[in-house]
Structure formats: structure tokens, C-alpha cells
């Protein structure tokens, strides 16, 4: 099943993103945690790719576990970084043989130890080229990334949206945004894209701030603005992890409420493998999506 079918059938879709640990012990622990995540019945999971494609085997293993052992639809991330076109084809074949039907197609972060994206020999320049290649290879459902405040490598927001339209034209069926902390940026971006003719689902990526230091680092790395009231509250309690975590949860709960009022088509929860995050936000998101998922993996 392509995930776009969920977005067509439901007014709102609840999804959770996880990352595959590097060790076998970590993988086993996450599989147990996913059993608890699944108690909140997300409509699908997505599994990230490591920096420079370092965890691609674990991405495949975890996606296959979700697809076959949990019976939940899954989207595996795939990046251009460090892979030739032939290597990408091999990954696609392996995913298809495991009945993993959905991909998040990304350019990907620079290889570890480098600051900028380096074109792999015989590889793809960007997500648009990757999406075109996936379309030619096999029948995958394809998601792509969007950046409400513009991509950190591209300060020209108009040009960044133009690039996004290119990804849609290449075959991206829905867009999941990078996290944002101020709904205004998402709503302006969404409305502008609609005015420009984008007619695919635009899904809001939500990441609960955990503390001031981590939030500041992530925001600078991703080019995301921190609302003044949130920054002041996190700074005030930077030495109190419990209070900081609560501040973050309250902030994203308000974000979610505002997005639901605005008719957002889905929330993609960047859980960072954290059970507390899913416990806190899962019930509200499940309620918004309906009492049970519309579809199983089969």
C-alpha cells in the first residue's frame, strides 16, 4: 500500500519517525520499544538513514521488522549521499524484495567529517533526481522533505519552493516538513505552495524541545526559528531537565492544537526513539486521526 492512500482516505494521518541504532543491542531494545509505540496505533512509521548512509542495513532491518512483525505500514528513508546510481538500485531491489513499498527520498546530510554535500561518483545531485530514478526503478510510494523556513543551505525561500515543486513533478506523492517551532512559518509556506499549484498532502513535522542547549543546537543546524517565549522559558529552566521537558511538551501540544484548527493533513512526530514523547503526544494524535488506523500493512 502506498502511503498516499492513507492521506486520501483520512482527514488526518498520524505518523512516527524513528532512527535505527548502530548496535545489535540497541536494535533489539528499539524493537521492544516499538511494541509500546504501536500501542498508540500510528498510521505508519518512518525509519531514517544514518549520516552518510552509515546505517542503511539497520534501516532496512528495522523497516522490515515494522512491516512484517508489527504489521504496520512503513516508510524507509533513502539518501543520495555516498551512493552511486548502481548502489541505489541495489538498495531499491532489496527493499522491494522485502515488500517495503514506501520511501522518503532525500539528498541527505553531508558525509561525516564534511560540511557540504559531495556528489558521489555516478550518483545523484539532489532529491529530485533520486525521485526520478526511484520512479523508473519500481512502483514505490514516495515522500519528500519540505522546509517551511527554507533549507539551511538555500536562504532563498522562493527558490527552495521551486525546488520542492520539482520534487513533486518528479513523482513525490506527499511532503513531510522539517521540524518547526512556530506554526506561522508552516502555514505561510503551505498557503504559498497551494497558491503556486501544489496539490499533494503537506504534513507537519513536529519535534518536542527537550532543553535549551539541544533546541538551540538543532535550530541552528536546521535553520529553524525559536519563538521568544519558548527560548526564554527554556533558558530560565536550563538546569532543570524535568521542567524543560514539560515546557517542550506544552509548546508542541499548543502547536498541534493550532495545526488541527488549520486543517493540517497530518502530523509526523519526530520521536527520536523516546517513549515518553509518544506516551505524551500519541493519544492526542491518535484521537485526531480517528480511533483506529484506516489500513494495515497488508
Automatic annotation (TrEMBL):
CDD domains: MTHFR
Family as reported in the entry's similarity comment: Belongs to the methylenetetrahydrofolate reductase family.
UniProt entry tagged with the keyword Mitochondrion: no
GO terms, molecular function: FAD binding; methylenetetrahydrofolate reductase [NAD(P)H] activity
Coiled-coil spans in chain: none
Keyword Metal-binding: no
A GO-annotated cellular component: cytosol
GO terms, biological process: methionine biosynthetic process; tetrahydrofolate interconversion
Cofactor entry: FAD
Record-linked InterPro entries: FAD-linked_oxidoreductase-like, Mehydrof_redctse-like
Pathway(s) of this molecule: One-carbon metabolism; tetrahydrofolate interconversion
Matching PANTHER family: METHYLENETETRAHYDROFOLATE REDUCTASE (PTHR45754), METHYLENETETRAHYDROFOLATE REDUCTASE (NADPH) (PTHR45754:SF3)
Taxonomic lineage: unclassified sequences, metagenomes, ecological metagenomes
Keywords associated with the record: FAD, Flavoprotein, Oxidoreductase
Name the UniProt record assigns to this protein: Uncharacterized protein
